[in-house]
């Protein structure tokens, strides 16, 4: 398995760069993965990433795109509660790209 | 990764493209890890005796499936199939001509299972099975979406998909499985769906949908889970719980059930219509996935099983559920007999959601405000497995007509694409058959070419702005690939999304 190295510490990832061990995630790793995805992490990105991790803690899966948009809208303002906003933040799709940065496993299936 | 991928140019005259030999050589999806393989009972990695095992597996399949032997023997290389494959059209790699792709396996079959091939291999195009050949299989049998368009044009009726499936089954038997499909099948066995969506997350999502629909319409539309004694068990692709635009069709199904006043339920144990066992050509895996649905139906005591918008799931349900699991009729083990007794045999078992909705429309049981879809000019993409491997309703061609009839009943603006690209001649979306994975995105974009050409034509002539489909794979594939061809990703949507827009609901107790 390939590894990434952040601040001198090595982290195991899968072929697509998703972190293998969820528990190893930290903000520096997130910043590093975001860079490889050409995403520049702002406060708005962190709101989404932090929410994803909270949801995952409770449900052991990332939220549906619809659940995510609704929750972000409720929590951080109605103007952020739409999928266009999330796609602007994470152009490769909020489900996959944001999950990757949040250190969560990739959603599988026909999605 | 995405930045390097570009769509091929539309063809000026859509005929056989110029050849680019080996253009896609070595392109392949990620190989399944040992852990993923182990979970399905396949060898974790290539064993030392892989060669013997591969030939033995081929022999086993030839005995088990008479059709496979016929297909391998019957081809006369007439060439009718060559330019019918979307992957060949999009990649121009001659090995993606259906006949050439089949020959990768056929040549090995000849070497080990026919007398001329054993005696004079060179004269009859027979070759040894080497590691290079195995790698070639892995690459090119994952550049076929098992859509069976080429089979429509084959004068011998050779089912190319069955050859691809056999090759993948052999690959799994020697520990050379595909990560995407096999990881997903493992999740169905342990969690109950492709996504790995556990029960509590499903509940949370469905509660959210109830709130959303209430907010939009003022009506209490329910999204029930694990309701004992419900009339209908809905089996739908788990993408419907998770992805856009899929979830809008799920809302459509729920509104139809609400308007019909029927009690229905999802099952948290069996929350997946998709059956990737079909894609990897493995009967045991396909059966194991199907049996979860039987168990859910027995546990919940439902009278009817309805299948949501999922292409290959409907093929498995319509064509194989009867003998795999005794849904419908066919299997004769005690549980199958119990289920057949339990289900209401006045209905088709299983029923496609489009059959269900169309039946209600014909009986005037649903009311629509068609103007709610007036902002849309709609065309319909026939999904390959529905089009070429199943049926709906009681008339030939029902699988083509019923979804279109529904669209016309709920919307005013519908136009079909070029007749050579729809109905039984439909082109695959480019992401079917277990290829809907990011590591094959370049292939997927290229494979979408013929569909995009046909779409462009109706966009130009009629201003089409909505591409309707009844398959979770098609929806995801188009969301991803439309932008490469200059279209908005939101053009793609479900048929029941249109139903959802237009249906007039009343509060019910």
What would your notes on this structure say?
- The complex is a heterodimer of chains A (111) and B (509).
- Chain A has helices at 27-36, 43-59, 65-76, 83-89, 94-101, and strands at residues 3-6, 9-12.
- Chain A is mostly helical and 111 residues long.
- A two-stranded antiparallel ribbon of chain A has the order 1-2.
- In chain A, helix 2 (43-59) crosses helix 3.
- The mean pLDDT of chain A is 93.
- Chain B starts with 33 loop residues before the first helix and ends in a 7-residue tail after the last helix.
- In chain B, strand 6 (466-469), helix 21 and strand 7 (492-494) form a beta-alpha-beta unit.
- In chain B, helix 3 crosses helix 9.
- Chain B has helices at residues 34-39, 50-64, 66-74, 86-91, 98-113, 115-119, 131-140, 149-153, 160-173, 179-190, 199-217, 246-260, 283-300, 311-325, 334-342, 353-362, 384-389, 398-410, 441-447, 449-462, 472-481, 495-502; strands at 232-235, 264-265, 304-307, 351-352, 378-380, 466-469, 492-494.
- Chain B has 509 residues and is mainly alpha-helical.
- Helix content of chain B is 48%, strand content 4%.
- The mean pLDDT of chain B is 96.
- Chain B has 3 domains: 2-177, no CATH class; 210-355, Rossmann fold, CATH 3.40.50; 356-502, no CATH class.
- Chain A binds chain B through residues 15-16, 58-61, 63-67, 70, 83, 92, 95-96, 105, 107-111, and chain B through 2, 30, 179-180, 183-184, 187, 193-198, 200-201, 204-205, 208-209, 212, 237-239, 241-244, 246-247, 274, 310, 436, 438-439, 472-473, 475-476.
Notable characteristics:
heterodimer, A: 111 residues, mainly alpha, Arc Repressor Mutant, subunit A, two-stranded antiparallel sheet, 49% helix, globular, B: 509 residues, four-stranded parallel sheet, 22 helices
